[in-house]
Amino acid sequence: MTPKDKQKIVDLLQVYIKQKGSQNKAAASLKGVSPAVVSHLLNGNWEPYSVDMFRNIGNQIGYSSNHWQFVETTNAKQLLEDLQKAKQQQSVLTFLGNAGSGKSEITKKYASETPDAIRVECAGYWDEKHFLQEILMQMGVRNPHNRVPQMMHEIITRLKGYDTPPILIIDEVDKLGDRLLYFLITFYNELRWKCSIALLSTYYFKKRLEDGLRNRKKGYEELLSRYGVFVDFEQTSAADVALLCEGQGVTDRAAIKTIQKKSREDLRSASELIRIFKLENAI
To answer: Residue 88: which residues within 8 A CB-CB, separation 6 or more?
Structure first.
């Protein structure tokens, strides 16, 4: 890693700190990073820190050594606008899109550039404590509590205490088990008109809610009542794939057509094909 790469990471870190509100909050939201590390890096005291530390920070704040460029696909432009409008109006919305439609990358960009935006990306192995700890960490809180009721109380209290109503973005919400979905009911009840909540998922989540309601599963009527305003993504187009290619410096028309065909209009697949093409052609 060159000094230039390290400087880019520090520059991104400064943006990240501004988004989080303070150096301490930024450090608290980064895994394996202390406030002292953040302070030293900002002050140019890089010598004590290994390349691994720079990589660790860079990976968490959006730095890529491959200089991957975000591009405004049709869905990206619309979702960025919808998230900002939802935040301004303290709305509760559920965004649905196919796998590989760019949901996660779009919300990462929004959260990295928007003050008072808290984003978590769910995983299937999470339990109740992990879910709440992840939210607290993204809020810049190194939580001293180890009990679920106290953690939940702290999240609600802090979200209500923002000077400007925040937005809580829960990506890949379909990966959460039923016991974790019940937390969403409390979030809605406690934060209505005080905090925007945006859920993102594949279309399976809508089916899961509707099936749960039909089968009279506990909590599903309440979930659908609160989170049943669905916003559908547009189908990713060949033009979107071409835009992604061009944004990464791939301009050869034949190569773009090949990537469009092989990716089947899946941006995740297209990204991998672009990465391989750039490696093979030293771009």
So the answer is: none
The tally of CA atoms less than 13 A away on the side-chain side of residue 243 is 16
Distance CA 247, CA 256 (A): 12
Mean pLDDT calculated for residue range 115-140: 94
What separation in angstroms does the CA of 92 have from each of 44, 150, 168, 203, 249?
A: 42, 24, 10, 17, 37
Report how far residue 247's alpha carbon sits from residue 243's, in angstroms, rounded to the nearest whole number.
Answer: 6
The dihedral region occupied by 275, where left means phi > 0, alpha psi between -120 and 50, and beta the remainder, is alpha
Residue 69 burial by Cβ neighbours in a 10 Å radius (0-12, 13-18, 19+): exposed
* Mean pLDDT for the stretch of residues 59-85: 86
Judge whether residue 142 has pLDDT over 90. no
With H, G, I as helix, E, B as strand and everything else as coil, classify residue 184: helix
Which structure tokens are listed for 252?
């050869």
